[in-house]
Amino acid sequence: MKKEYNISELNPKKNPYIGKLKKQVTINLDNNTIEYFKTQSKETGLPYQTLINLYLSDCATNERKLNLSWQ
Fold first, then answer.
1. 42 inside domain
2. Whole-angstrom Cα Rg for the chain
3. Structural domains of the chain, count
4. What counts of helices (H) and strands (E) characterise the chain?
5. pLDDT in tens, 24-55
6. How far apart are CA 46 and CA 36, in angstroms?
7. Domain that includes residue 55, residue range
8. Cα dist. 58→7, 11, 16, 39, 71 in Å?
9. What pLDDT is recorded for position 52?
10. Which of 6, 9, 14, 34 lies 20 to 30 Å (CA to CA) from residue 54?
11. Nearest to 21 by CA among 44, 45, 53, 61
């Protein structure tokens, strides 16, 4: 192993995934919501946490607004 390396010879590039880092949070979800995503998980082969993240990311990216009406 060399004592020092010259990385300029390797033509380094910035990490393209740096903007996609995830942050762990705690969230309370209803049992039926979790079961829904677990069922989707079995059908798609993706972990249910990933599916929840994809769904929420889609909402954020497309700036979807909730339509709440309290009665």
1. no
2. 20
3. 1
4. 2, 0
5. 999 999 999 999 999 999 999 999 999 999 99
6. 13
7. 27-37+47-60
8. 38, 35, 20, 19, 28
9. 97
10. 14
11. 53
